[in-house]
Amino acid sequence: MKPIVSCKGITKVFGKGELAVHALRGIDLDIMEGDFATLAGPSGSGKTTLLNMIGALDHPTDGEVVVDGEALGGMKKAELSDLRLHKIGFIFQAYNLVPVLSARENVEFVLRLLGVSPSKRRSRSDAALAEVGLQGMENRRPSALSGGQQQRVAIARALVARPRIVLADEPTANLDSGTTKELVDLMYRLNQEAGVTFLIGTHDPRVMEYSKRHIEMIDGQIESDTSS
Amino acid sequence: MMESLKLLVPLAWRNLWRNPRRTFITLIVVSIGLWSILALASFMTAWIDSSRESTLRLLIAQGQIHAEGYLDDPNIDHLMQMPDAELEVALNDPAVSNWVTRLELPAVVQSEYKTLPVTMLGVDPDAERRISSIPAKVVEGRYLESMDDDAVIIGLNLADRLKTALGRRVILMVTGSDGWLEERSFDVVGIYDADSGFEDTYVFTGRNAMQKMAKLNGEISQIAFEVPEEEALPGVLETLATAAPELDVREWRKLSLLLGAMDASMGVTIYIWLGVMMVMVSIGIINTQLMAVFERIHEFGLLRALGLKPQHVLTLITLESMLLIGLGVLIGMLAAALTVVGLSDGIDLSAFSKALEAFQSSDVIYMTINPLDYVIFPLAVWGIGVLVALWPARRAAKISPVEAMRHAT
Question: Where are chain B's structural domains?
Answer without folding.
Answer: 2-55+260-406, 69-245
